[in-house]
């Protein structure tokens, strides 16, 4: 099991539209690599915002997705939820300020370090928890200027 933290540029803060856009671009890369993904948010409203971001992708970049409880039986390759998952997936994209209880059920976790101090402190705590759980940890600076 592994977790990768993407360190955001200075302009990208917790709960910002830029963070939502970056998260969707990153999850699209993992989807194209063949992973089934659960995107976990702290609220239904945030899940609906991400759903809208994904619907705005160009047709050739479309990512099949659905909100929790919607979509085809078995779900789309990407499920966006604010609740505990109902299905098994490989990859968790965590967009909350804490480590979900079910995080250890995933092979790969994607997490983010926003630029604001509150977001950084929450990310440090998640990093510490993942390390205590024995996950292999990695960090990468996010540097795609087209998204910001």
Give your account of this protein's structure:
The protein has about 150 residues and is of the alpha/beta class. It has helices at about 15-30, 45-55, 115-130; strands at about 1-5, 35-40, 65, 80, 90-95, 110-115, 135-140. The chain has a seven-stranded parallel beta sheet, sandwiched between helices.
Termini separation comes to 30 Å
Mean pLDDT over all positions: 92
Strand content: 15-25%
| Gross geometry | globular
SSE string, helix = H, strand = E? EHEHEEEEHE
Largest sheet: 7 strands, parallel
- Protein structure class: alpha/beta
Q: Which segments are poorly predicted (pLDDT under 50) over 5 or more consecutive residues?
A: none
Helix content: 25-40%
Count of DSSP helices? 3
With strands numbered from the N-terminus, the spatial order across the biggest sheet is 3-4-2-5-6-1-7
CA-atom Rg in angstroms: 14 Å
Number of strand segments: 7
Task: Annotate the secondary structure layout.
Elements: E1 2-7, H1 17-32, E2 37-40, H2 44-55, E3 65-67, E4 78-81, E5 91-94, E6 108-113, H3 117-132, E7 136-141
Parallel strand pairs: 1-6, 1-7, 2-4, 2-5, 3-4, 5-6
């Amino acid at each position: 099991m592994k977790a990768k933290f993407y360190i955001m540029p200075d302009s990208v803060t917790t709960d910002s539209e830029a963070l939502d856009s970056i998260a969707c671009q990153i999850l699209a890369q993992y989807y194209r690599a063949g992973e089934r993904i659960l995107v976990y948010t702290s609220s239904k409203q945030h899940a609906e915002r991400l759903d809208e971001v994904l619907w705005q992708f160009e047709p050739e970049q479309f990512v099949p997705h659905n909100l929790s409880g919607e979509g085809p039986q078995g779900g789309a390759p990407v499920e966006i939820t604010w609740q505990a998952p109902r299905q098994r997936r490989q990859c968790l994209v965590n967009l909350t300020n804490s480590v979900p209880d079910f995080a250890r059920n995933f092979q790969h976790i994607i997490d983010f370090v926003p630029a604001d101090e509150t977001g950084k402190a929450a990310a440090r705590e998640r990093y510490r928890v993942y390390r205590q759980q024995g996950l292999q940890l990695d960090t990468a600076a996010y540097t795609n200027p087209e998204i910001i």
